[in-house]
Amino acid sequence: MEVYSNYMVFKRIQQHNHQVGGNLISVRYQPLTTKLTLHSNNNQVLQKHLCFRPFHKVDVCIDGIFYTVKITWVILWQSRLYSKQTLIIKELLPQRRRRSITMISYGMCILLIRLFMVLLEP
């Protein structure tokens, strides 16, 4: 039996759903266009192109409650949802976060192997 994981397969749209209170919050990210959309109960509350700016802070209103979406993608991906400085959702796109950690770990392993090869060279 062949085990196949689509963990590292490129997906055109990365998405994840969260339950906050009585609302279903759906987060979608398109890596090719860097477009992030946030839907609450099938109503779009946020659409933002992240482009080349690595830090984003956007205020959104969901059912009369104001939330803040903070996105950072300098080295590691991080996207969080806050309500009045209180963390509501730790990671909006956990697959994207895991993938960024995996890619950095892979890069560090390759870098260490190359470094050891240079140091051990006669």
Profile the largest sheet.
Answer: 4 strands, antiparallel
* CATH topological fold name: Lipocalin
Number of helices: 1
Tally the structural domains: 1
CATH class: Mainly Beta
Can you give the mean pLDDT? 90
Distance between the termini: 45 Å
Keywords: Membrane, Transmembrane, Transmembrane helix
What does this structure look like?
The chain is α+β, with helices and mostly antiparallel strands and 122 residues long. It has one domain: Lipocalin, CATH 2.40.128.180. Helix content is 21%, strand content 44%. It has 1 helix and 8 strands. The chain has one helix spanning 94-119, and strands spanning 14-20, 23-30, 35-40, 43-49, 55-62, 65-72, 78-83, 86-89. The strands form 2 sheets. Strands 1-2-3-4 form a 4-stranded antiparallel β-sheet, with helices on one face. It has a 4-stranded antiparallel β-sheet with strand order 5-6-7-8, with no helix packed on it. A hairpin with a 2-residue loop joins strand 5 (55-62) and strand 6 (65-72). The longest helix has 26 residues, at 94-119. It is elongated, with a radius of gyration of 18 Å. The termini are far apart. Keywords: Membrane, Transmembrane, Transmembrane helix. The chain crosses the membrane at residues 100-120.
